[in-house]
Amino acid sequence: MAKGKKSTCFFCQNCGYESPKWMGQCPGCREWNTFVEEQVSTVSLKKGGMSGGTVRREPAVLSEIEMNEEDRLSTGIQELDRVLGGGVVAGSLTLVGGDPGIGKSTLLLQMCRFMALDGNRVLYISGEESLKQIKMRAERIGAFNDNLLLFCETNLEIIEETIKKYTPKVVIIDSIQTMYNENVSAAPGSVSQVRESTGVLLQLAKGMGVSVFIVGHVTKEGTVAGPRVLEHMVDTVLYFEGDRHASYRILRGVKNRFGSTNEIGVFEMKEEGLIQVENPSEFMLNGRPEGACGCVVACSVEGTRPLMTEIQALVCHSNFGIPRRQATGTDFNRVNLLMAVLEKRLGLQMSGCDAYVNVAGGMKLMEPAMDLGMVMAIVSSFRNKPIDEKTVVFGEVGLSGEVRAVSMAEKRVQEAKKLGFTLCILPAANAEALKGMEGIRIAGVTSVQDAIGFVG
Description:
Layout: E1 5-12, E2 18-19, E3 35-42, E4 72-73, H1 78-84, E5 88-89, E6 93-98, H2 104-117, E7 122-126, H3 131-141, E8 148-152, H4 156-166, E9 170-174, H5 191-208, E10 211-217, E11 236-241, E12 248-256, E13 264-270, E14 273-276, H6 280-284, E15 295-302, E16 305-317, E17 325-328, H7 332-346, E18 353-359, H8 371-383, E19 391-393, E20 396-397, E21 403-404, H9 409-418, E22 423-427, H10 428-431, E23 441-445, H11 448-451
């Protein structure tokens, strides 16, 4: 191995921006005090690029490239297949990010179990747990066969030799922050090590046709290089969201070169592992109060999936000079904006009222289609009048009080009809195309003035 010239460089721990000198603010992500100094060494790289060898290749004509349906492998988990765009693509590099303890390793181990039972050789490489620890978790999940191989190692050269020796179809790296490349003098978990280690795995994935999943931790302190450094290198980025103390988990695809982005998969954490939630709308609406004021069901769309969620609002007169406003699961500034619209356009005196808005079930929804639901929940609580339980609402509200059209209205109404709702309040522009739908009454509104007529 050729000896390299050692030098120091400064890297942003948030986005990986590289600079020859320290800077207070990162020009890439505009964050302050994120630069750290790391040693880097210039070494001669192996020739061959993504092909993994020294064979000279020629450009190919697009029309001559053949595609096969067999290029995708099913994970055995429908929710994960949905987020991936139909299954695992051969030769892909996927990043799974999320807070520590959220369930990333459990989900990937369950995926390994199903794929191994399906006859695929899977290699699970862990740099954090021992073989006995992994087996303890595996016994809780279910029975495994001999197609799953476990390997505890952090040296990337040994890992590369092992992958070439056993030629598995799927490789799990848990986690990328624990891996180190001997050609890089920086410590494991640093920006340099994470980036160089991912580069080696990328060459293996593309050169051998192996599907690689890498786990990346996200810490609030920012002491470890987060997955943002890797997002431009990988094919797919999946984020595991949710409170680790709650039972639900949401797997969200934020980047996917082989499918739709912003798809979500919903899971419930139980003793035997992560259980798929096939009907998340019904799951989110469990335990709804009957006849309560300030509660309304709204329909949001995540990717291609409609989700029914309950929006709760509590409006009461304030005892302080400055009223308190709080939003959970939605944008706080959006709540203030909608209350200003109600006060200006409808004359509702809310300037002296405390307001609390909550999206039940722990979901985080930022879609504009939730505006009308928040407006009706706020008015229902303010007037102390309930909204019919069989009513579902969606629509975007403008500053003039108008209700604007939203996308995928038919999917939203079909989901509401399937769950037994009898009335759907939606923008009049969307209602025109849904007039002939049976089994549910369609009420098109053009302004918030029309919509609040259904309160009480």
